[in-house]
Amino acid sequence: MGNGEDQHPPAASAPTLDAALLALITQCHNAILPGERLTLAIGAAHVGYIAPALATALGSFVTIERHTATIDPAEAHRLNPIATSLAAQFGYRTRGEDFDVRHAPDSPVLTQLDRGALPAFGVIGQGVHLNGYVRRADGIHLWIARRSATKKLDPGKLDNIVGGGVSAGMTPFETLLKEAAEEAAMPATLAARATETARIAYDMERPEGLRRDVLYCYDLELPDDFTPQAADGEVEAFILMPAAALPAIMTAGDAVKFNVNLVLIDFLLRHGVIDDLTGALRRALGVS
C-alpha cells in the first residue's frame, strides 16, 4: 500500500461505461503506419512519416529509397526553414515555437522543427499534463480548465488544469513549472511538488495531420485554499469538479479535449474512481 494511491474500494463500473471509456482511448490510436506515408529518417534514425507529395516537395533535401525519405545528418539543420517555406502549400501554420526532433522521447536531439509542422512530418511531440486535485469529505475533486474559445485547436473544450508542449531545449518538468505559472498562476514552490505518474503515447490521425504524441502525466494534491487563475488568456475558466462525475461528462459527448480523456482515465483508474475488472482500459492506455 505504499504507492501513494487511494486505498478505498474501487467504484463499480458498468460494462457500457467501460466500453465508452475504451472508445475514447482507441480513437487516439487510429493511425495505421506507415500506411501511404514514407518513413522520414535523419541518417539511420527514424523520426517521422510524410506524405508522398511532401517528400516530392522536399526535393534533393531527401534521398528516397525503399519507402524511406532520408535527410543527411549534416543537413538536418535545414529541416525547420524548409518546413516553414512549405507551410502554405501543405496547409499547416507555423507557430514560432520549435520542438526537438528525436527518434524516441529519450534519444538524442537531431534537429528542431516548428510545432505547427509536427503533424505534417509525423514527428513526435512531447507534452505535459497536470492532474490538480483536492481531497474532500465526499471524495476527490479535480480542477478542470475550459479552453479559451480563441484556441486554434479544440476551443472551448475541457482540459487539465495545466498542460503544454515541451519546447526545444526544455525538459518535461521545466515545462510543467513554466505552464503552471503561465496558465494557472501557480507558484513554482507548489507546482514543484507534482509527481510524474505516467507516460501515455499514441499515433492519431487528426484534421491537422498525424499526431504522434507522448504525454508526461503528473499528479499534484492541491491545498483547499488554492484557486487557479487564468493568467495567459489560454483558459476561459477553471472549474472544481467531483472526480466521480467526470466519466459521465467524458462519455456523454465531445466536451473534453481528445487526449485529456486519456490522462483523466489513467488518473481515475489509479485513484479507484473507476475500476477495470478485465484490464482492458489499462492495456489500451499502454501506460509506461
UniProtKB/TrEMBL annotation:
MF GO annotations: 8-oxo-dGDP phosphatase activity
Nudix hydrolase domain mapped to chain residues: 125-269
InterPro entries, per the entry: NUDIX_hydrolase-like_dom_sf, NUDIX_hydrolase_dom
Pfam families: NUDIX (PF00293)
Name by which UniProt lists this protein: NUDIX domain-containing protein
Organism listed in the record: Acidiphilium rubrum
